């Protein structure tokens, strides 16, 4: 990720919150395989665990997800794990680093017409694109042996936690005055067990967490106000989201400068 200082976000808790709010990540691997392409990517919803580091330093966290066994990327992961076990290495962790990309909720093209300060003064403006994103790097553990108690326990916890997260945080189904959330236990146990045999679990301990909020904060106050006004006038959810992002990031930049 190209990180200009003005766009970089170094606060771990802010990056973790973007992941929680936008849990659909893009898992990318580069693992050599005799039968599949080197580069593989899959869209996967993740659960983020943030264990206590014990020494007061912020923990990057651990990502948990699952993939269908028929997914070519899952096949590559299982091949790599099997080859590792054939060499006598019983660890479930693979040596190659993986990447998970999370995108913020809003992104949009920015027309130079929004730069109400610089455009009329010099004309030295160009189009760009506003967005926010987080990249998580780390080693991956693969839970693929459906006969293993460890795999069964991991997958049960994973599908249960992911369902609870999605029903409550995304759907707003929390019970009480809100609708009652659906739970994995609402399905027959035999059916859930059958489905678990057709997925693998993945767990990624995050070694590096990088974030970028590119929201016109590199521009001067006048141009930022033009961008906020321009997006607000679009009358769309994305437009309103970008306008709010530009406002927040601009204020944060100004506070640092003061």
UniProtKB/TrEMBL annotation:
Sequence ranges of Basic and acidic residues compositional bias:
246-258
Q: Where is this region: Disordered?
A: 227-258
Query: Which Pfam families does the record match to this protein?
Result: FMN_bind_2
Q: Which InterPro entries match?
A: Split_barrel_FMN-bd, TR_PAI2-type
Gene3D superfamilies from the xrefs? Answer: Electron Transport, Fmn-binding Protein, Chain A
Q: What is this protein called?
A: Negative transcriptional regulator family protein
